[in-house]
Design brief:
302 residues; alpha/beta; Rossmann fold; 2 domains; 3-stranded parallel β-sheet; 9 helices; 11 strands; 37% helix; 17% strand
């Protein structure tokens, strides 16, 4: 006779994000008492609708925790040299403690090259190659936000990964690979799959933890998950032609949530899971960047 598992514990990313923001607010106030102002400068090329919406949301989030925020908007026809110059000026300005680059960039601009121009000590998203490379040694100046958000969710689940088998589905440079390196640093046994893996079902059922970060809607199904596994969904995908009960575009993750929640022991929803935690972590990283610029000797030359 088969015993049916209880439905999975659903981790509330919004409550985790709220806690991180409160801690960040206190950290900003502590730095202010030492005369240090946390200033995050963001750059947007052109005015894509999604970018403008996110920029407004980011400014509100920064204001909420006491971070001084400024948006630099370059025209859509700006050249890479224009963007390099803008980044360089912010790198050289001692009053600017954090820099981030809004995506997507206009066609013709090479995104990694532009991100690589950001001073690694001001790189609040952790995308400079110095930060990605130092992640290999578990010594990044600022770690990638998505990887940190995944670790926060595992901590929220009270699930230490040391010695556990973790399968990371998705090996992109922004999410999958940094997540895998972060887990390796915690002595997890990590298997990496991607969209080109012939059968992810040959790997995921062996895993104690599945991290889905492939950018493929509902790729991970119930039969891919070992009963009782922890499932962290990093994906965020818009379903064409479908809306939610409020008439907004329907958003799903890389996990078939309704099916997998009956198999997993812990699962994160989309939306409301890793996403808001990633935003909160970026704010915390902005504070960390300001702190390190004041109190740490530089050990990487950008």
């Amino acid at each position: 006779m088969k015993v049916k598992l209880m439905a999975a514990l659903i981790l509330d990313g919004r409550s985790v994000a709220a806690r991180i923001k409160q801690q960040t607010r206190c950290a900003v106030e502590a730095l202010a008492r030492d005369g240090i102002v946390v200033r995050l400068h963001a750059i947007m090329v052109g005015e894509p609708a999604a970018g403008k919406l996110y920029a407004r949301s980011q400014e509100a989030s920064c204001t909420d925790v006491g971070i001084d925020h400024r948006l630099h908007t370059l025209p859509a026809n700006a050249s890479e040299e224009n963007l390099r110059r803008c980044i360089g000026e912010l790198n050289d300005d001692p009053d600017v403690t954090g820099i981030m680059l809004h995506l997507p960039l206009p066609e013709g601009m090479h995104t990694p090259t532009m991100q690589y121009c950001i001073d690694p000590y001001k790189d609040v998203e952790g995308v400079n190659p110095s930060n990605i490379g130092l992640l290999f040694y578990d010594r990044p100046i600022i770690a990638p936000c998505t990887a940190l958000a995944v670790l926060e969710m595992l901590a929220e689940a009270q699930y230490p990964v040391r010695g556990k088998h973790v399968c990371v589905v998705g090996q992109g440079p922004v999410a999958g690979r940094p997540i895998a390196l972060s887990l390796l640093a915690q002595n997890a046994t990590v298997t990496g799959c991607c969209v080109d893996t012939p059968d992810i079902g040959a790997h995921t059922p062996q895993a104690d933890v599945i991290i889905a970060a492939a950018g493929v809607p509902e790729l991970v199904k119930a039969h891919h998950v070992k009963p009782g596994a922890v499932v962290i969904d990093v994906g965020i995908n818009r379903v064409p032609g479908e809306t939610d009960d409020r008439g907004r575009p329907r958003i799903v993750g890389d996990v078939d949530f309704e099916a997998v929640r009956d198999v997993a022991s812990v699962i994160t929803p989309v939306p409301g899971g890793v996403g808001p935690v990633t935003v909160a972590v970026l704010l915390r990283s902005a504070v960390e960047a300001a702190r390190k610029q004041q109190y740490h000797r530089r050990h990487v030359v950008s």
